Amino acid sequence: MVKALILIADGTEEMEFTIAYDTLIRAGIECTSAFIPRGLSPYGSSDTSPPLAVCSRQVKILPDITLDPLSAGPEKYDALIIPGGMGGAVTMAESTEVQNLVRSYYNHPEKRTIGMICAGSKVAITAKLPGQPITSHPSVQSEFPEHFEYKEQNVVVSAVPGKATLVTSRGPGTAFPFVFTLIELLCGKDKRDEVVGPMIFPSGTTGYPF
Amino acid sequence: MVKALILIADGTEEMEFTIAYDTLIRAGIECTSAFIPRGLSPYGSSDTSPPLAVCSRQVKILPDITLDPLSAGPEKYDALIIPGGMGGAVTMAESTEVQNLVRSYYNHPEKRTIGMICAGSKVAITAKLPGQPITSHPSVQSEFPEHFEYKEQNVVVSAVPGKATLVTSRGPGTAFPFVFTLIELLCGKDKRDEVVGPMIFPSGTTGYPF
């Protein structure tokens, strides 16, 4: 079974989080949401029961776990997903544990998949991923160093040989094409089509082509 | 300030709930989510602190309140929103309190707005709303009595003179056009355009025209 780890923090964009989690579940992917605390790290504590995440527009979501970096790596999950929402994205981008986690997925010999959407793409900068095609919410575009090849596309798929496939996207409005691209990469085009059908998209809006 | 009451229950479609709540907040609408318990009614109990709602794909959301029918009426809120997800929609459709609530919004002399999406449209049947144009998830289409004028459209706006405006829609894939239609009705087209912009929709997918 394909497994995905989806990060969440206070200030996470609740639509981007929920669209990713729910739609991946519809594709038969086992999803685990992991809370990223702000500031001082609680790691080393034995208490990993997560608090409620208060999202960007005050929807309160109970994550499945609090992130334990020792058991959240690319040996356990096929994909790592980082949603936007400025508050949550800043917490994730500044977290040493998240930076290390992203690098471990990026460099894992069994090619993993990393998804970042909206301000979540900031983590590609702080994790010091090498330059490659990328996109993000326009409000953080100016933060990307020049070695990234910034694109104003709904979804950007970057496949550096021997590294994780990096899928980036722009905002809540591109969250469906983002997650369908992840499903196609992880489970194939037939599964993508199977999931799209019962969700009843207006014609022309299912993310083909991204 | 425009105020909306959004229902939630175990089995509610978490994308439809979250897209509605979050996007209405972006429009400056004050949102309150109200939990609908399944089966035996707790009303009369003084404990209105809500439990976690376990949604259709296992996202766990803490509602703002448990529904108190005495303070949830059209005197307090401008709009009543009913998301889909079969489990949650059945709970709502079978709830006498929800049926009464929908009728009170429908008949209130200061024209209110009622939104139902996906299987949430089932409540229009059990609340015995009069026949009018309507849509829903295709999986429940056959349940609508013939006096409803069923339409296979992304969003259906029904404005019976002197009654609430009833806005219905089809599924997660039409949730954005659904909520933007509600925003346009409640706050005007300029506000809709203002909210759409920073959400970065692919061109042609913002719900114009529905």
UniProtKB/TrEMBL annotation, chains A, B:
Class of enzymatic activity (EC top level): lyase
Boundaries of every DJ-1/PfpI domain copy: 3-184
One GO location term (cellular component): nucleus
EC number in record: 4.2.1.130
Keywords from the named record: Glutamine amidotransferase
Segment forming the signal sequence: none
Thylakoid in keyword set: no
A Gene Ontology molecular function term of the record: glyoxalase III activity
Keyword DNA-binding: no
The reaction(s) this protein catalyses: methylglyoxal + H2O = (R)-lactate + H(+)
Stretches of the chain forming a coiled coil according to its record: none
Biological processes annotated in GO: glyoxal metabolic process; response to oxidative stress
A Pfam cross-reference name: DJ-1_PfpI
Matching InterPro entries: Class_I_gatase-like, DJ-1/PfpI, Prot/Nucl_acid_deglycase
Protein name (record): D-lactate dehydratase
Source species of the chain: Suillus discolor
